[in-house]
Design brief:
mainly alpha; two-stranded antiparallel ribbon; 2 strands; about 70% helix
């Protein structure tokens, strides 16, 4: 009986070691790219328990909260955190252009205001109505420019918010399907192992001793032809 318990404990230990190796391989493949490694990830994940899969999913789940950074900070900060480099670069460039444009236009308006006040102070006999008319003509382009850049920044921010909402939904769905769906490896194969199970077995020898072994069961699903 003690020998049987020792053998069961040994196989349990080996099963844990194999599971940990698979988890480490899956993590490495996820970091390399879920989409391009979905077949291999799905095959390795099929030998894990749901709890182990959930642990991997939670660790690699794309967070949704960076949407607030894109909304209130800008410059693609939230997208960088989510790993959406393409959107992050776009937002950084667009927001930088908008901020530069707004700053230049504001500086132009401010310098025009100072110039107008200085000219009136230096020439008290100058017609205030004429000064206001000239001032209005000169400040309109700066105002229009600042409003245009502000509108451009607003549009860029809205795009970043939408992208930072859709990106984690899409990525997390792919990750969950790859880990939990038995048909995850259909991406690269028309026929695949959907279930891989290992179980310790014991055979009784003629001398009444036990011979340990491992049974492996692989179930294949054949996809319908299209």
């Amino acid at each position: 009986m003690k020998k049987l318990i020792s053998i069961i404990a040994l196989f349990s230990f080996l099963a844990g070691v194999f599971a940990q190796e698979n988890i480490e391989k899956i993590q490495s493949l996820i970091e390399d790219g879920v989409e391009k490694n979905s077949a291999e990830i799905g095959t390795l994940a099929s030998s894990l328990s749901n709890a182990e899969k959930e642990l991997i999913y939670t660790k690699n789940e794309v967070p949704w909260w960076p949407v607030f950074l894109n909304a209130f900070v800008g410059f693609g900060v939230g997208s960088y955190i989510q790993g959406d480099t393409k959107e992050a670069v776009r937002a950084t460039v667009c927001d930088s252009i908008a901020l530069t444009g707004i700053t230049v236009c504001y500086a132009g308006m401010y310098s025009l205001i100072l110039k107008n006040q200085t000219e009136i102070a230096d020439d008290p006999n100058r017609s205030k109505e004429l000064s206001d008319e000239d001032f209005a003509k000169q400040i309109i382009p700066w105002t229009a420019g600042m409003l245009s850049f502000a509108g451009f920044a607003t549009i860029s921010t809205v795009i970043s918010i939408v992208k930072s909402i859709k990106y984690p939904i899409a990525k997390n769905e792919v990750l969950r399907n790859t880990l939990f769906t038995k048909n995850a490896t259909e991406v690269s194969s028309k026929q695949k192992p959907t279930e891989i199970a290992f179980a310790p077995i014991f055979s009784l020898n003629q001398d009444l001793s036990f011979a340990p072994g491992i049974a492996c069961e692989i179930k294949f699903n054949q996809l319908p032809l299209r």
